[in-house]
């Protein structure tokens, strides 16, 4: 992976909590964040005494490299958000300016935590569909803004293999959003559900109290116990 091809864009603890409908009971579970990138969820939950591990292919880079790339990407993304602002719901995040501040705060918290987190085994340079963890090592796995969202780049077989792998390492898996980048339901969703049904993995579409991308109001929940 080349750093110039990386588009790091991280969300906050509060957004994760809303995106995945995380209760206090959930937050006390052992959690795997898959594709977390520069989100501050790990840093913030760790400060609260949580048990969380994050994996992402971008964790091969140093904090300094990621910080530099984040600054470049922010200057690219914010103008795009202004152009495409009608594709989003500006309620919990009131404006593009507020979005930039929220995202940068989250990513700065990630950067400040990254080196210590790597040393303590909270950040791993790994990526789906193959993870190094033991079977059912985690009670809960979260996959934010990767599967389904990037349906043009991640094919159906990779989706199925990735979700099966998440179910191997965690008792419960939550994936959000179910829309692809074009704002439509992912073309892979129905076939993924059929494949999960075929191997006996209980799954359901669950409403969440979060919406930023218009129409992104549900997560896929898969249970392997």
From TrEMBL:
One of its GO terms (molecular function) is methyltransferase activity. Keywords: Methyltransferase, Transferase. One of its GO terms (biological process) is methylation. It comes from the Bacteria. This is SAM-dependent methyltransferase. The lineage of its organism: Bacteria, Pseudomonadati, Pseudomonadota, Gammaproteobacteria, Alteromonadales.
């Amino acid at each position: 992976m080349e750093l110039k091809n990386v588009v790091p864009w991280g969300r906050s603890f509060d957004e994760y909590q809303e995106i995945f409908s995380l209760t206090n009971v959930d937050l006390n579970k052992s959690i795997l964040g898959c594709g977390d990138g520069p989100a501050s969820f790990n840093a913030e939950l760790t400060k609260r005494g949580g048990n969380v591990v994050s994996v992402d292919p971008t964790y091969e880079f140093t904090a300094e490299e990621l910080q530099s790339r984040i600054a470049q990407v922010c200057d690219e993304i914010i103008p795009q958000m202004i152009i495409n602002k009608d594709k989003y719901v500006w309620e919990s995040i009131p404006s593009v300016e507020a979005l930039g501040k929220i995202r940068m705060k989250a990513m700065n918290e990630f950067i400040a935590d990254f080196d210590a987190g790597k040393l303590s085994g909270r950040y791993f340079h790994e990526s789906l569909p193959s993870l190094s963890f033991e079977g059912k090592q985690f009670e809960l796995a979260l996959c934010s803004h990767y599967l389904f969202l990037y349906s043009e780049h991640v094919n159906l077989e990779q989706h199925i293999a990735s979700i099966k792998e998440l179910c191997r390492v965690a008792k419960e898996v939550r994936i959000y959003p179910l829309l692809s980048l074009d704002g439509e339901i992912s073309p892979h969703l129905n076939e993924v559900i059929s494949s999960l049904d075929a191997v006996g993995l209980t799954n359901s579409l669950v409403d969440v109290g979060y919406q930023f991308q218009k129409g992104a109001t549900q997560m896929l929940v898969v249970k392997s116990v």
